[in-house]
Amino acid sequence: MAGGRDQSRRGRGLPLKTLINLRWLAIAGQTATVGVAVFLLHFPLPLWPCLLMIIISAVVNLTAMVRLRRSDNRLPDGRETAGHLGFDILQLSGLLALTGGLENPFCLLLVAPVTVAAAALPGRQAIVLGLMVLMSAGAMFFWSLPLPWASGAQLNLPALYRFGVGLALITGVVFTAAYAWRVAADAEKLELALATTQDVLQREQRLAALGGLAAAAAHELGTPLATIQVVAKE
Question: Which of 19, 78, 90, 223 counts the highest number of beta carbons within 10 A?
């Protein structure tokens, strides 16, 4: 019973509504960042490719909202959660590749989907998403557009710096995911222990109630039997 509970809890993933809300926050943040960089800081960003990546994310989110309305609040699915987090990793990696790759300080955001996966998904799916982030970091090390900078200025960072950023990103993904995994596992153990304790208490309450019924029945039967015994002796 404990194993079945643990397995169902590990594979339940996140509610689709939560994933939709988180993606809307990401879309709003990406749009605001691109707008500030282009219109306020006047950085030469590839505006239309960046907007295309954001629009694709918005279309996926609208599709998920339609699916949510048709699902009638069904229980979340681990595979569906992994699919949404995988899309977020690819979309963010593509946007980062258009805006400097590993030179972009926002590459730290790639840690977030893996951390969520480690806390809410089974180990196999979390490992797959972690490998996706590692491959995305490797791809951005070899190919990405230059980091946009102020007009008339050019920022050239050495390859060693980009290698250090990629190594820091990989280390952060591994340690943060491992930490989230351990915390989630401990929380599941406590939840399972609490559920088991509640089952034991409920069983004891049922046994106590059954004992009370047996005592009441014995009392009800004992009174006429005692009268019959007295009459029989007389």
Answer: 19
